[in-house]
């Protein structure tokens, strides 16, 4: 790539004696290890080598008397004696290598501590070893022979000197960045300094240190140069200047300090570059340079001669127009400083440049140094949304290399210091090097310990915020978490005792002592929670202990403010949605805010995406006055009229003229509902409203805030380009203290809450003013004639003025072309109005001229004519391969220079709007219509197909991954405008299929259904029902119908698809087997759980035999079999298969794959139904955080996880939390899908149970009856889920004091459940327990006892003896015995129940309290997910 020295093979020819000497010296140097990194042990002595001829002794070279680099601080003490640990609970731990066996941990030999790439660097610098005759009499050197002879004679080793005839030509100065982050690079810096000192190529090697973090007395950063040691006195920058042309300078840095980001080092580099060649040696690898603070540029460099200073270099920046806002100003007076990696080929490139071994321009990467720092462009007042821990980790995961991410997940489990980090890298991630550690330390995920700023270098301790630790540990392996804790504890346990305490807790989580320090508690709590399983209880204990310490600290006045320190654990941070539309609105709002603040100090506090003011705006005074009056009197107005009359420009001008009148101005692009919702969601975030991160809650929240005038009363909301004003009604904050402005093509109905203002053509005076403003040489007569010709239409006049200004065409010539175009249009389309002809003719003149001036630009616009009238990303056309549309456009799409030239040409001619900041092109809707009308049928077909291919080229083919959703969101607006569904290209058809899946995964189920139905109908007609991609669309349609609860339609579509798959591909094809899974899903929906289980098992066995256990189709079949087993009541087998499937999916699909998370979720439900309530709750919380981090808070996947967590909280006895969460989930389900959606019905039933537990029996009964009615309407009276809902209502009725009605409902439910599920299903037995309670309440205790005895016998065969449902039957039976007077038997059984309950349920569980008080147990039945 440009800017990177090319890789050239090294050729070794005949060596001179001096080169042989260099090689011998190099071998000696490289064989001598430099200072060993912390965490690396000395190589152990092996068995004695067989005797061979002895080698001559090698005297150790004496180091040159040059100052050392910064001395490290006191290092970690020597390793402690290995502690013997007990086995770790849960089986996570693996063998951890000890210090004496370096290869045991990774199967590799010990890492060499010599500098990587040292021989290559030495070879690259060798050409600098130049000699010249000595002109100084005092130039002497050691005479080795005479010195030896004199020593033999005198017995004294006194040096004997002799004159030198030649001397080295060049001197070298190495300036080392002494910033705190450079401590990580100490071994590399030390090795490099040693290499250049002993190279022998330079007359002198001078070392200086540059403190980049020193602050002046006023607190500002002021870099300071010091001598050969970090604590040396301050030196003048000018002392390094060289005016004789024989000194070189290398500056070593990682570039991450604030001084580099703020360009404060630039003046020093510029000053040094005036007298010598200077290069910057960047210690980070090139792919990380953008993460550092140094602004770098690609350049073409030329040197006027050997060893000339940088200021005399010639340079050209080919991409400067793309990377700088004002290229001429930025480049003026700048000095290019080459930037190198610490590698041989980079130094070779630099040596060839400065020695002028090449005379042509060479590509490279440079820093532009200036005499004064560049002013900062950021806006401190710009609102910035702080990313959450999950978002920060997700961003790091997306950008980090695999070794760096693995290092981060390991370091998150231990205290972090440089020695520990190096140890973890060497022992557990041997493939990593210092650059990977640098990725972690510069990621922003951790920082220095705030309470110990005095610790630096290897003594410094770094901190991950607790929320970041949790997010990282959820992405790592639990076995590796245990491994790193134990390994680090054995090596650094004495310095960090928390590691030893965590290791003890791993061995015995129940009896290990709790830590005393708040930070230690937090670290151990995070680790225990990440490990979960047998450590979940300890995590909960630590959680409570953490709270107690925080309360104690607060009472003593020592409570800290750090949210990640000691204190109550923070709630789950709201996740910022990663939706492209919302991100676009945010970026546009920020850009617009910066723009308005540059021109005025009266900018409103909240300012969103208002377009730039048109500097050529003319006239419209009457309309502006009418608009102002309407907004003052009626609080709302609608500007309406045909396209091209300037409605948007009028709204923009009004805003800029009334800036002082508003505290909040928000611009909403109203062409599509998705854009409106995205814009209002971003406004909710700007206002920091509750629920702003959830799409379903953000819009109501922001409308309510605007109506209430909180926090701003003087607001103005603009809805621009609404095709149908009536469509806006749900989004208008009518009744608030602010103003609403709408622009639309058509007038609204009389009931629309806005005063209509019609926008018409320009007056003649306004037309003339516009034409003469662009070109003052136009006469009044010519301007009036042209205005008359164009009918005073603003858009046509603006286009004519822009084209004439760009081309210089005389008015007469332009008028002649206009007449020709109008005549053509009258002939071709005699029905067109004068308005349409004027606009079309003006555009046609410009388009025809562009086709001659730049055919590629014209063809690009022709393609854009088939996109939606939305900003189109430049990336759509950049670097396109395998797509051929038209010769000139094809060439431009492969050449960035030609593409940018075409875009500039379009922008200059005002044919489309080019936004350089966002890299988008916007073509007006009228221009699109004109372009399409101008094309021949053949051209129209070709350009439309080109639009299809370009959109298909964007398909990442991964609609399940949230990180790819912005790519699909980019395509979605163009789906119907480009008529993608009608394209025959298979890759474009694959894109359409993926868009259907994207809509489902992103939560737009209704949109997914609409598109699926449309695609299936169109493709069946065009390609036939047996076409493979038609069948794939049909399969997706069946699935979406099922998701939306339309089970009969789904089953019909799925069965038809299965028949066609079997006929087309065969009964054992992958497609047919996948369709079988969907058919089984239909059986579950109809309530035939056992038939579904049998079909799932049959499919699973066939897939395993055909494709193997780890094949994705086999894993899909296994997951569906787990669901069927759960529904059929076989919880244990479901648990075993779910754990196996989860492990396999994690390995094959990845930890964060959506299907992997689905299997994890169903595995947690299996454990929950087996009675492991606390484990299920804790794991469900982690899954919820994970799903929220991956997909955002507003998706249905998050709401479903909320429902599952609410059920787990209720089962674990956290009734209040369950009530709150289930209520929230129910509200969001209803907002998103309505009350009759399957998820909404299940959530309503769960919330009714939570209301019952809270004592709100009447509300519980009302909601339960609503849910039952919906279940009957959706699934039928005899569906098991309907019957379960009726059984839950029976419990509420009995608690309301009506056991007779309760008995009737329970017996009806029990009879139905037995018929559908059999007598031994857990739900049947739970219903039987409730029915026995009815008989007890009615006084028939004997019947209750018989039922409980029979139920208990069946439960012991179906569920474990200690299962909570079994305990419920045992408790109720004991209470039956007590009522019947069999006290001894009752007391014994009651005592046994309490003992088991104490062991099975968490301390303080309400069920334990109820059992102790002899309260009969009730059984809730939660329908399993279908």
From TrEMBL:
Signal peptide range in chain numbering: none
NB-ARC domain boundaries: 635-772
Entries under Pfam families matching the protein: DUF7779, NB-ARC, TPR_10, TPR_12
GO molecular function (one): ADP binding
InterPro entries per record: DUF7779, NB-ARC, NLR-like, P-loop_NTPase, SAV_2336-like_N, TPR-like_helical_dom_sf
Residue span(s) of domain DUF7779: 853-939
Comp. bias (Pro residues): 45-72
Biased composition (Acidic residues): 555-565
Lineage: Bacteria, Bacillati, Actinomycetota, Actinomycetes, Pseudonocardiales
Gene name of this polypeptide: fxsT
Name under which the protein is recorded: FxSxx-COOH system tetratricopeptide repeat protein
